[in-house]
Amino acid sequence: MKSIKFILFRQEGVLRSEGGCHTIPAGKLVITDEKASVSSFSQSTFISILCHSIDLLPLYQDLASKMVQSNKFRLPPNISERYKVLPASNDIICATEQLVDIERSASLRFIYLYCLGLEPIYFSQLLESIVGTNNELLEFFDKNRLNPWTVSRYADELGISTRKLNFLFYEKFGMSAKQWLLDQRLKKGCELLLSTRLRVADIAMECGFSNHAHFSDSFRRRFQQCPSHMRSLME
């Protein structure tokens, strides 16, 4: 799997995967690939969260030394299954939904830790297969995401063309390099805005924006309010 999809079923539904249909009872969490879909009378009966390898990098970095190592255990025979079903209480489903509304990355961390707690060997191996094989590229971007570089500069640093870089990003992460970098810089900008007294112009520079206006315009589109107004709401 290049990416995975978490689907939480509040009510019974039908999972469509690999040309087949599978009835999933209520109160279940399905872990599957990005091509799977759900047939249901209403979207309110399930929650679906698509997760790319770069979304799991922080968790992988935190847990790499603690996870079950592949040289100690054989790869579970069902690691290649197109979907896996785990129990999910109403509390788990509600907590995930609340976290999705607050911060998508928090919901992914929560739900993956839940899976690791239930089946540590399987989900350690799955995390390694999704993130570990992409680690060099992921860590390069994670380390350099706040540098004031253009996408072409990142491509030059990696020794590949800009077109190739964007192809890799779409293939592995489901978005362009520019889109991911902008999202990361805006999240960091929001964090600095709420936790420091730095001027907005200084925050823009800290987060890799070439100028204050670009940061403010992008911030407004992302968070539906300008940086100074968001800061005033927290005072």
From TrEMBL:
InterPro entries: Homeodomain-like_sf (IPR009057), HTH_AraC (IPR018060), Tscrpt_reg_AraC-type_HTH (IPR020449)
Organism in which the protein naturally occurs: Yersinia canariae
Domain HTH araC/xylS-type: 135-233
SMART domains for the chain: HTH_ARAC (SM00342)
Alphabetical UniProt keywords: DNA-binding, Transcription, Transcription regulation
Keyword field contains DNA damage: no
Protein name: Helix-turn-helix transcriptional regulator
MF-aspect GO terms: DNA-binding transcription factor activity; sequence-specific DNA binding
Protein's UniProt keywords contain DNA-binding: yes
